[in-house]
Amino acid sequence: MTTPNHRPAGQWTLIFRRFKTHRVAMWCLYLITTIYVLSMFASVIAPYKRDAISLDNAYTTPFSTAPDGSYHVFGTDHLGRDFFTRLIYAARVSLTTAITVTTVSTLIGIVVGLTAGYFGGIVDTITSRMIEFISTFPTFTLLLIAGSIAIQNSDDIPIPALLSQTIGAIMAVNEREGKQVVMIMVIFIALGWTGVARFVRGMVLSIREQLYVESSRALGASHLHNIITHVLPNAMPPIIVAYTLGLSGALVAESALSFLGFGIQDPTPSWGNMLSFANSYMFNYPWMPLVPTLPILVCSLAINYIGDGLRDALDPRVQTEVTRAKRDALLKAIRDRSAAS
Amino acid sequence: MATFLIRRLIQMFLVLIASAVVSYVLLYFAPGGPMTGLRQTQQSGRNKISADDIARIKQRFELDLYIPYRFTRWLVGFPAGPVTIAGQTFLADVAAGCKTPGMVRLRYPDGRTEIIEEGCEVPITFADLVDRRTSRGILFGDFGLSQVMLRDRPISTLIASRLPYTLQLMGASILISIAIGVPLGIYSAVRQYSRFDYAMTTVSFVGSSLPTFVIGIICILVFAIGAKEAGFIYLPPGNAVSNKDYVIPYIGEVIASSTLDRVLHFIMPLGVLVFVNIAGYSRFIRSGMLEVLRQDYVRTARAKGLRERTVVLKHALRNAILPFITLLAGVMAELFGGAAITEAIFNWPGLGRLLVDSIERNDYSVTMGLTMVSIFLLLLGYLITDILYSILDPRIRLS
């Protein structure tokens, strides 16, 4: 009898293999990774200083030379700052914000949703009521209000210096700017975790009733063991899809907020606030809004394609749950979108 | 059903009050308000403002009352003065606020002095509240006065002037999107993997991934700026009416605020919202239909020899449409809340832009009013959805 010389491929390997067959999604993954990694080397790549103002060079058209002889690939803005440089730094700010916000709110959502769904009872009642209560608020309105308050009182809001410094370092901004970004993140997380929690809770409720969980309990496994080895892995695939969609949601919401002037403030570059300036000069310089629009457009499309690819790649065994998760995610996306249209 | 309704209404009421408290507290900590500008004037030296002026202005905006009373006066219009029961007045001496705060001079050991406000010299009692304008309470539909945007004019005037625009834009866009999006989704699902389905899914995928402001800006660039440069028929880029006559190629002169003018201004914001909504709705209906079409009862229906049309529209659609109803719960709030970003981009004078403007200008009473309306409508939407659900789906019983 021959022993197989390799272990059968695990679930994640299978998922990854299937994901690779989705060409567009794969390219989008490369694209996003490249953009983010490049933005981490912003200080090396960027041809100019981030906030270098030079009024003589203002409104230089893309692919052309400014009056003082300097070349600007994407042109310059109303203050003569190089668009390409700012786009790279903005990628760092916008993408880091989106990733941090989605990751933290997903983690909170998983913990809360798992606890509520797995243990049920009073914990479940309280958390569900709380989640329901938070979801009755018009999210986008609240984002606007909270953003406006946070920006105007940024000195009075206590944010640990270490946190703003760390975030600042990741985004290559100073501590003051870092603090502002942290405030925006906190607002997004505070409003964002409920969706994930509700969704995880629903899934855990059905997984908890499965026979394998029951038999594991009967064999004397602890709750913690059960959650880690049975519940969580089975709940994971739909969570990953929701995470991807949440990522594009956070990216769009941040740029929308900054676009309206309640998010990340100039001179900290973010694609949203760059667009809001460019937007006011669009009648004289129609090319101007196109420059910051491009990365928003590319990134939100790319992230959605990755989510699409992941959805197709997920194990067919959990297909029914995935379809439900998919529909929930779609429902949430449409709701968020209509709130933020 | 009756018990369900009563319980839900009570629940709704409690949630409404709770959210009122939360948003009031949130905005109370907000900076700005009518006193900000005054302090600046005061510091500039000219037009000295006396303590009396400050007290008067504080009184007008109720800033001299204690928070709990301010909140209840805003919410239900109580206290509006001493309580009179059977000819006897009660509570006339209860302090509701502070007219002049006490001043305490602090002297530090190093010789510096500082004057701080502490305690209350002249309190405001319930009896003093009689002369004030008291809002009947937001719960009873009195929003109070605007502080910045329209000084001292009722917020309801402000809302009434914006409401028609929002209703027009949102109503039309929602109706058109449902009328087009639902059939498209059904057709796409029935003809899954056809060329039409591929085209449809790609377009709606792109449409629902792109942020509205990106679509809006691209539309303005193409249909307003680009088309005008190229000498084609172009659309006005913003506002609901223009204030000057203008000429559009092939159409001729457009007279300001004529029907044609209004229609031309309406097309672009409407188009953007319709596009975005159709993308979302059709994807949603498609995925629901695909799930239902795989079910056994659909196969049974086909096996019975029913026409495909009957199978799709009677057996499948009725089940696929259910989750769509949930989606519509938010529609009512949306209808009155407007679309903040689209309205901001196209300068559309609706409630969504009013909200953004009021936040920007720190006119919190307006923000609060709009927030309360949208929370109320959202809750009402959920209630109506639940009732509709039980009517459309006999499997669900309300209890």
What tags apply to this protein structure?
heterodimer, A: 341 residues, mainly alpha, MetI-like fold, two-stranded antiparallel ribbon, 2 strands, B: mainly alpha
What does this structure look like?
The complex is a heterodimer of chains A (about 350) and B (about 400). Chain A is built from 13 helices and two strands, in the order αααββαααααααααα. Chain A has about 350 residues and is mainly α. Chain A has one domain: MetI-like (MetI-like fold). In chain A, a hairpin with a 5-residue loop joins β1 (about 65) and β2. The model of chain A is unreliable at about 315-320 (pLDDT under 50). Chain B is mostly helical. Chain B is built from 15 helices and six strands. In chain B, the strands form three sheets. Chain B has a two-stranded antiparallel ribbon. In chain B, strands 3-4 form a two-stranded antiparallel sheet. A two-stranded antiparallel sheet of chain B has the order 5-6. The longest helix of chain B has about 35 residues, at about 155-190. The radius of gyration of chain B is 28 Å and the shape is globular. The termini of chain B are close together. The chains are: A mainly alpha (about 350), B mainly alpha (about 400). At the A-B interface, α6, α10, α12 and α13 of A face α1, α6, α7, α8 and α11 of B.
